[in-house]
Predict the 3D structure of the following.
Amino acid sequence: MENEEINVPSTPTEESVEQPKVEETKVETPKVETKPLNEFDSLDVDDEDTPTQDFSDVPQQQGQGQEGLMSTGNSGMVYDWSNAPEGVKAPPRIDLNGQVMVLKKADMILPSVSNPWEKTKAGDKEFKYCQFVLFYDKESQQEYYSGVRTFNRDGKYSHPTITRDRNNQASKLLGLYADFKNKDINEVSLREFMGFLNSQPKVEIQTAEVTNPTTGAIVRKNMVGRFVN
C-alpha cells in the first residue's frame, strides 16, 4: 500500500557488559628526610692528611626540636634561653703596637654557599675567600687576615689555601712562622701552621695601616710582627 509506514523491527544491540571495578592501589613513596644544605657538607676531604673537624649545630628549634620559635598560641611561648646563641660582636679595636701577648687561637671559616664564586686572574679557576681570624689574650682583641681562599673542585670546597709569595696578610704571617722555624716557606704545611697558631704561642704586635676596600677609611690593624720564644 502506498505511503504505508513499514515498521522494521530493530536489530537488538548487544548490551554493554559492565566491567568489574578494579580498586586502584596507591603506592606510597617513603618520605626521605633531607637535611638543610650546609656549606661544610661539601668540604672536599679526599686528602688523607685532613684532620677530623667537628662543627657545632646552630640551634634552630625550641626545646626538643618539635617546635619552631614561632608561637601559635594566644598566650605566647616561654623562650628557652639555653638555646640562645653564644656568639658576640668583636670589641672595638685598640692599638696593641709593640705589645707582647699570647695568641689564644686561630680559626679559618669557610664561606657560605650563597657567596658567589670569583675567577682567578688567569680565568681558569674559581675561588671564594675564607675568613682567617686570630684571637689575642689582651682585652678580647681579635684580628682578621686576608688572603685565604678555597677553590671550586667540581662544586666542592677545596681545603683553604695560602699563597707562598708573602704578598698578602695571610702569606706574610706564614712567612713569619717559616722564618721563626728556620724553614723555607714552601716546606710549611697548612696543618703545621694552624697547629702552631693554636698552641698559644707568644707574639709581638706590630700595627699596620690598611685601607677599608668598602669605605676607603684607613684602619690600623693589630698584626703579628714576630713570634717570641
Residues 169-180 form the longest helix (12 residues). The chain has two helices and nine strands.
